[in-house]
Fold each of these.
Amino acid sequence: MAAPKRGRSASAQSKPGRSLALILIAIAALTGGMFASGNTTPRLGIDLAGGTSITLKAKADQGSAINQANMNTAVEIMNRRVNGLGVSEAEVQTQGKDHIIVNIPKGTNSKEAQQQVGTTAKLYFRPVLTSEPSGAAASPSPSSSASPSGSGSPSPSSSASSKEKASSPSSASPTATATSQGRAVTDGLKADATPSSSASAKSSASPSPSASSSAPSSAADKTAARLQAQYTALDCTKAADRAKAGTSAKPGESTVACGQIRKVWYKYLLGPAAVDGTDVKKAQAVFGTQNTVGWQVQMTFTGGGSKKFADITGQLAKNQGVQKEFAIVLDGDVVSSPNVDQAITGGQAEISGSFTQQEAQSLANMLSYGALPLSFKEDTVTTVTAALGGEQLHAGLLAGAIGLALVVIYLVIYYRGLSLVAMASLLVSAILTYVIMSLLGPAINFALNLPAVCGAIVAIGITADSFIVYFERIRDEIREGRTLRPAVERAWPRARRTVLVSDFVSFLAAAVLFIVTVGKVQGFAFTLGLTTVLDVVVVFFFTKPLMTLLARRRFFANGHKWSGLDPKSLGAKPPLRRTRRPAGPAAGSVDPKEA
């Protein structure tokens, strides 16, 4: 009789070391990446690190639509706001289609942060009274300072030639950029753009408000002195100064502000807002090929905005030097300060300069957002102290340790030697979970919060359940009278199907929970889904190959009483034997009894 054929299954069974080597290499690579990146611990969420968590819900108004582009722009602006408070680890991210989560770590005033992120971004066009490089980049001469009335002369470093230009798209040719000249304020701007007035502009080494030819009122004199003191003391290279600049100014008042141009910080003294951001109907970044080659931002104003913009640009075109500029101010920061060489009418304008595509698109987005802002209402505001978060984490870890200990005790008592396989598999799963969580922190801003810890604890039971299903299938095969090696292989297809169905249901529940929930509950869903996927990986690439190798060892193969696979204790049947049936009478023969 020919020997039975041994197919691919037998060949695969003889090389379980490949699967073990593969998962061990993956663990080594992920661990090496974790240490190489410097992120050796998972990023802690706001409830563990302490701080303030604010959930905002967007609502459509003023013709604006809640879409991904508007939500991303809102996140960018809110991120600038929160970081302007001096917070280095603040997180602003979208959740779902209409929610934004703002997590502000400890050390920040929660009320101030709530006000910063809960209000809609404000965009204004303000005339520039004077500006100069700030901090280490500045080299001003005594005459470079200017009072709010505009007296004084600019420093060479504040030449308008380094800024963008604003012009009408219908211009026949590019306009020339103005050079640095005396900083006089025109009669039209003096009445409403400066806190004090002067009959004539003249250069003066002393920028005091008293330099004007007409005596200002006491209130205007105090306002001018206060603004001059703010402007002189302002150092835009410092984040704290930038956060405070112009925070209390109203749209109809002059103010100070900061802006960055070609990686150099400038400080500005600005007049009252002449055009509001809501007067911009549309803004887009385009690549110019006719009058001005390069990236530029085209703006379209509303009916009322067109008149306002024409009036202010007509006044600015009459000025000299830096006072030919208007500043685009978003949340107190100057994002652009183009020159104006002529009155811009027709309701359209373009800002040109040495823009990159990203810079032009960013400016266009900010202008558009100012024109069509999204309103937000607070859904929840949670303040957690670091001590409370640490206590909760300690309690969560204690609960996880107790649960893990109970699982291990059960495995040792009931499965004996097989418990080593289960504990080794749990260890591999824990290592993979920890390393991946550490890497996901900087990669996708994943933060380990208390619900995520709960998800990891629940995953212990899910992972142990997969091992138990496989072990019980092997025991069933042994009870049928089979030896361990064939029992391991015959039990695997049935156990694999059960494990996949069970894990699929768990993953589906985690996915649905992640989609329909907002905020911290998503941490639970994400961790549950991650550990469910890792359970499949560990069972397929570690538990099954390890069982195949152990089935070749005498301790397990001979059914030692401490192996957990003793045939006698399992109530195994005697080995199956094939018996021959007696041959029946030949055809045509007669039974002797009948004869």
Amino acid sequence: MSGSRLESDVVVVGFGPVGQVATLLLARPGRRVVVLERWPRPYPMPRAVSFDGESGRILAATGIGDRLAEVTEPSRDYVWQNGAGTVLFEVDVSDRGRSGHPDSSAVYQPGLEAALAERAESLPGVTVLRGHEVVALDQAAERVRVVTAGPEPLVVEASWLVACDGANSTVRSALDLPVTDFGYFDDWLTCDVTVHDGRAFEPNNLQVCDPARPRTAVSAGPGHRRWEFLRLPEEDPAEFGTVESAWRLLARFGLDPDNATLDRHAVYTFQARFANDWRSGRVLLAGDAAHLMPPFAGQGMCSGLRDAANLGWKLDLVLRGAAADSLLDSYTVERRAHVQHAIGMSMNLGRVICQTDPKAAADRDTAMAAAAARRRGTPAEPAVTALTRGVVRKDATGLGGVLGPQGTVTRDGVTGLFDEVVGTGFVLLTTLPLDEILDAALRARLTGLDAHLVQVVPRGVEAPGAVQDDDEVYLPLLDEAGAVAALVRPDFYLFGGASDAAGVRALVDDLATHLGSERLSPV
């Protein structure tokens, strides 16, 4: 740092979980990142309390995989009941899902943020400046410039800015970017509690769809619990948010100051909206700066982590000249579609949960109880859909846009999750020997992307350098698609597949076209 001016490849505004993950994924390949966080100290209380398996895989990719067990626990189950205790909906959450992590994990957010911050501090290319609020920004053809207030005002210049500065984003407001607002507003009293009497929670995560008082009781990570209560229309907002109101409502669950500590209580207004454009020149929005949704599908923080994963690899390619900056236009296209689906799902769930009309609630209960009996044992609807536009290839295999799985593999005597054994980044998976599908030129083009070239073989089959599919995840995926190869993006979504050796070259050619990269073009 020299004086009051800094330069970097990327400036990240906001250092909550989304800003932290974006920083780490950019720093991993060597990008210089300056982080500007307006608050001088981390917020000591949780906001999010869960994340899904895909998010677990993204978090592990930042380098904190060995820390996750300290701050998370598998969610185990999720049950909806009506006011009388009748089960309306239930899901047993797999401890090992498609992404190699629990399909849902309860998390203590302050612990997660501490692990991410420690990881950032260990990387030489990262500078984290707390207590520096962005008060102005401007853009030129090649740079973006921000000015901060704080103990020592700074000017920071970077090639790109990623705004992860929350729902009331200063950056989004400064750029006057329009949003689509769905007009969804519900007030909920959130109570974070430490319970001292050693009771077991069965189910571990409970939604009570009671028209007299919709309420929630869930894990908030090891040793922590959360209860939430909907404010009814006739209730005074000021009184509803008091500590007396919190204890009165918690008494429904047998909690009082003698057996529990109320760590925090606050009234939140659940909202639903998204920015119409997530890129403005050299500025990109991520996390709550780009979208808000009710928490009922558990996709708020997850969506922000997907933003960071999607943006990280694209920005890296642009910064090192391996892709045109037009690649970043695909960020809005891909992520906005995902978020629209998650917002719609969250609002629909909220309308069911928040029903306060007794007659409508009774009709709901009858229909849902009957459906629950029929559905028992079937998986829940996924909150994330496949990519249909953007950097995906539409081919006969149908693999383009699908979220890639992660299983246990063995290579050269080492066994573990695929990302741990092989690594992250672009991956070419194939059932054929690499020399049969890659000549020197094609191999060089993939190597230019730092791609991992992986032959997959059945469990127990020895082949030099090949990966054994111990969990029988990868070979069935390719076989069912009629593919001999698939190209996986660094954010774990499949770019596309190839049905024969000749198709692999076409696959790489098409990726080069999407990236706008002359360096990857055929020679």
Amino acid sequence: MSLFLLLLLLINPTIKSIENENIKPVLTVLVDDSKSIPFFKEDKNISLFLQEIQNDRSIADKFDINAFSFGRKLNRLDSLSFLDRETNIYKAITTVNQLYEHKIAPIVLLTDGNQTIGNDYEFINAKQKIYPVVFGDTTLYKDLKISQLSVNKYSYIKNKFPVEVLLNYEGKENVISQFSIVKKGKTVFTKQVQFSATDNSKTITTNLTSTKEGLQYYTASIRKIEGEKNTKNNVKSFSVEVIDEQTKVLILASVLHPDLGTLKKSIESNKQRAVSVFLIDDFKSQINDYQLIMLYQPNNKFNKVLIDIKTSNSNYFLISGANSDWNFINKKQLGVSKKVLHQTENYGAFFSNSFLTFLQKDIGFNQFPPLKDQFGEVAISREYQTLLFQNINGLQTKQPLLATLEINNQKSAILLGEGLWRWRAASFLNSNSFQDFDTFIGNLVQYLASTKKRNRLDVHAESLYSDAAVIDISAFYLDKNYQFDARASLEIAITNTDTKKETKIPFSLMNNSYQTEIENLGPGDYSYIVSVIGQQIKKHGKFKVTANQIEEQFTNADSKKLLKLADKSGGKLYFKDEVEKLKKAILADKSFYTTQKSIVKEQHLIDWQWVLFFVIALLTVEWFVRKYYGKI
């Protein structure tokens, strides 16, 4: 028996067993933790409603209950504070959908339905049934509000810049009010507006004149009407930076291509920049009129332009593609060469975390469609930094796709592929906005168009913040060799210009940048100094915080939008006093069922330790028996 078991252990057969596991559906409870809930005096009601669901034994038997709180972000529910200054219902729902993508997980949404940031949740494609529960006053009151204000961030001195304001009215009576824009206590625009139950929306467009260089702050307001309950949504502040010159970018192309329009749109999304696009045959001007020259798929017709670029030491951005003449480019000794074959290849992109020329985040480059270029190996003979590497059919290479070069105060960049228009479209599909892609192109253009000496410390901050928002400030610090220095300690000192109160906050290192978040700054004007501790390197700036409790700008709960959300997802809308109806509905819904999952477990016989002990026991017994009978 001992020998048999030992041989069996040597063979080590695999033993399979099947275990059945019951998986209950997940009931996700999303609780609005923003300031609008206590503003409607619903904080106690929402807490009691949550307890009713969590303490119900029938629901606990049928579901795994997971509760989350949300405001600006989604958090696992620990306790409710109702202090969040912003509400993003869309993000809360989409995050939960991703979390329970492959599970049965209905959502109970406890909220007033008023969202202040993010995409409109009314049009969300929810994968789970959603049961909104309305908290807050659903009675409609007379209300005037500034729904939207659009203005360019930049203007030029002594020029006019457009301001567009959307005003909305809720009510049944005819009312007259006064809209005005004020700068430093002086009214610069005013207009009388009239509303009725049917004519309840007005768009006001005006042009204001830029008279002084620098940051200029304005306040738009609509006068209170009789019987209006909430006036906090009657005022909106905005700022415009007045500059005295514009960056001019020239795009020269050998062929017509959708990329040309994409580059123009992205670059000119920043009104500080103007783009001129020419086919190389039609260009008759001088390149000295421009701060940056973009060469799109150059060929031998670009000879004179490249000679002028070398002579004037101008900054340039070269984009190659299927129609580029690499034999010509190689002869021009630009520091970049490519041995090409007479065939094209699709090149995907993946982001380089070690890129240090300027601050750029990964906007999902690896998910973008591939660019097309002639197949061949790239050689760069100058010092360069790679922002994007080539990915060929899923194989990540060390060949650059997008790189920057700098020598003798001349900056340049090279992108090895055409098809940027697809990237911009893909970026929009990923984020519902062109902003990420346009910022990426803007960062590249800002670096290339600048003739200033490179700063060792760069700070990114907005000029105007709401006191309801979290103030995000990032910094980028380089050592003496212009390499990112992760050993440094950065600090920001913020001073209120009126009270002279100073607040010091350290930065945290995140990837290849320093980040800090500032909360609870009161309304007012602030100046700041970002400094590197132990170094004489500092960066100054200023911003303004406006009084804008956005969570208190709503007069009632948005039950109409919540009803549309429930209908679209296959759920149903409930009110705060209908907890029993909600519980009965989700308990009776047969689509929320427990699934059984079979798990096949494989175990090797050698893992059964008791077999080895049994062998040892048998051998031990045999030894004693033989000893007893004198066989040993």
